[in-house]
Known about the structure:
Blueprint: E1 2-7, H1 11-22, E2 27-33, H2 36-46, E3 50-54, H3 62-71, E4 77-82, H4 87-96, E5 100-103, H5 108-119, H6 127-137, H7 147-154, H8 158-169, H9 173-180, H10 184-198, H11 203-212
Parallel strand pairs: 1-2, 1-3, 3-4, 4-5
Amino acid sequence: MTTVLVVDDQALQRLGFRMLLQAQNDMTVVGEAANGSEAVRLTAELRPDVVLMDVRMPGMDGIEATRRIAESGGRSRVLVLTTFNLDEYAYEALRAGASGFFLKDARPDELVVGIRAVAAGDSVISPGLTRKLIDAYTQHALGGRGAAQERQLAQLTEREREVLVAIATGWTNTEIAENLHLAESTVKSHVGRVLMKIGARDRVQAVIFAYDAGLVRPT
């Protein structure tokens, strides 16, 4: 059973999410929070598998709440909800440690599938939207690599670097396997080693690392 904490400052939004998730036979809503402070407190108390996090809320916003939840080192993973006009907030939330994000106009079935994926340890993010976000908000970070990034990159083999670039491009494991002429099981092994060597929690963090390190440039 996947446990979910719903965080949104609008009571009707929380009710809608609760009704959708409680209707699934493999999910249960263990709590609700109306702001970031409540989200951090309830995450520590309830240890949900997934925190469904709104971005703009009174008091502590979803970005700071995500950062605190990620830094706590707990098992809970954050899935951020945003709208098209909040792309910058979504990007900052990903940097803060979120495992992905959905637009609030996503279909209910898409959101359910996304929560399941995040609970399973995967990341959920649209490759096209990822590129829009990073193209718009990371150009300031492309001036050069830091010493820590250089050390991390030096640990990667040539093949692992190719896999990292492919991840940042938005390719799935299947697409990486096809384009690099590898077995999908081999790709999964490479992805795991890449994440470990660059200190990324998931593919979303790997995308951000690749752009910050200058391996991928805005198009």
